[in-house]
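I have a small job for you when you get a moment. Can you supply me with one protein entry, sequence and fold together? It will help me judge whether the discrete encoding reads sensibly. Write everything out right here, beneath this request:
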Amino acid sequence: MQDMTEVRTPAEMLDERRHPLMTRLPPASHDRVARRFAAACARGDTAALKAVLTAEATVVSDTGGKLRAAVRPTRGADASARFLTALPTGQPDTTTTVEPVNGRTGLVLRRAGQAVAVVSVTVTGTEVAAVWIVLNPDKLRRWHRP
């Protein structure tokens, strides 16, 4: 039987050295944490969000300059949890679904089938270390549903 060697790009190896806790988390572990995060977002539960975020958690929004949102990243579990409760996840006209985003579990928020936000997370161990929120309408088109 032949040994299989995993091939990684130089960028992946550099990222692993910079962020050793973020390396190769099994998909099931990522999924479990991402779903806890999604449930806390859907409830607008600040305490549950703080519990699932690392103390140094960062939230970054991409609006493409087309919407109003935080210009700088939001840092820290407290500030990040407060920021995330402003997402329209619990509003009656908004549906929130857990879907694959960039190959990992994430969230998609839609109104009348139109994506209004796509959220991906970076998980370290049992917590979310980074949250990436795409709000730029130009980047959300492929997420729309009829």
